[in-house]
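From the pipeline queue, job 12 of 40. The input is one protein chain; the requested action is below.

Action: predict structure.
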Amino acid sequence: MMFRRPSALVCSTCMLLVVGAGCARDTVEDDPGAASDGNRPLDPVATGDIAQLDSLFSNAQQIYRAGEFDSARTLLIGLRGRAQQEGALDAEARAMTWSGLALWRLGNHSEAQRIGEQALEFKRRHGLTDQYYRSYNALGLLAWTENRFFDASRWFKLATDAAEELGNRYAAATVLGNLALVQTELGQFQKARSGFLSMRETMAEIGDTMYEANSLSNLGMLEIRLGNPQGAVPFLNDALKLYESVEYGTGTQSALGQLGTAYRLLGETSLALASLDSALQQARAQGLRQDEASNIELLAEMYQEAGDQHRALQLLSQAKEINAELGLRVEAGADLRREAEIHLALGDLDEATGFASEALVIHENVGVKLEQLWDHLVLAELADQSGRREETRQHVSAGRTLADELDARIAYVELALVEAR
């Protein structure tokens, strides 16, 4: 089974889940006097410089929010240079952090890592403690994207501690929501739900429409993971309305992708195709490579279910190329499992077994239990059709152990279906 990954949004992501550095609200609430170096009072000239830097930074964020990540990064590089000239340490640090986020969105992970670590070192060197959580959060999102879930959890824990030390409920809520993304991937679904709900409550109270939409979109995603696509649709429709009200295209395309997944599982083929096609077009227009691959994978699954195995393989080849380029191991493993299912449908059991076995190794190394469960169930089907009864029992047994650890309805349902067959 294939799912679209959740979103991590920065005010700019949804994905949708939110990065604690965000939109204009973040500038106002978290960084009063952000351009000051903290060591001297502000004279009138310096105050004017700060106001101008804040205006430039707000403009860069709006462009980022519009999905024009290359343009936003260009502005942020220029802003950093100007901040250096004026000795505005806070503004320089923020420009570095957001430049790294733009690179993350564009899929340039190695450079995003370099800039993100450079920004954190800069903040530590100059004692910009009120900005630590931003760097921790940004580095956590990058680790989550790259399936480095232990690293992501560690960064988000540091971000939470830093935000709480500042007494910043807004920042703490965004980080908690991002940690829920990791918990989703690790199958810790109740913890993830709690994180998304907490974020939704805080953002609704604060009045941050975009981040409230992020939490709704990810609650929809979680319902899909748990085998409740019907329950996901209201969350996703509410998220879409909120995204459209603030004209946040990155969030809109992500919610559309999740909605396409829900409609597909509900058997609403025309609605699913319309949602996924729109999401794919928007992802490509914004240069969101990971989201592009997710939408292609879901379209491949629809073609596979319709019996067009060769078209499904063609689409998967496109998604695999993107995932390899971005170094996304979980997604690469899911693509291999889907190829195994297609070759199973074509009657090529040996090749299918090779793909599924490779997928299982990848997912075991990363530690994603739900993906491992799907891998074992496909391998059980393959062993059964090949007459390898003991191997079939071994894979079913492994799947049952994983289902018990996950304690999720969808895991037990899929396991029961395979055992029945």
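Job complete. The two ends are 17 Å apart (CA to CA).
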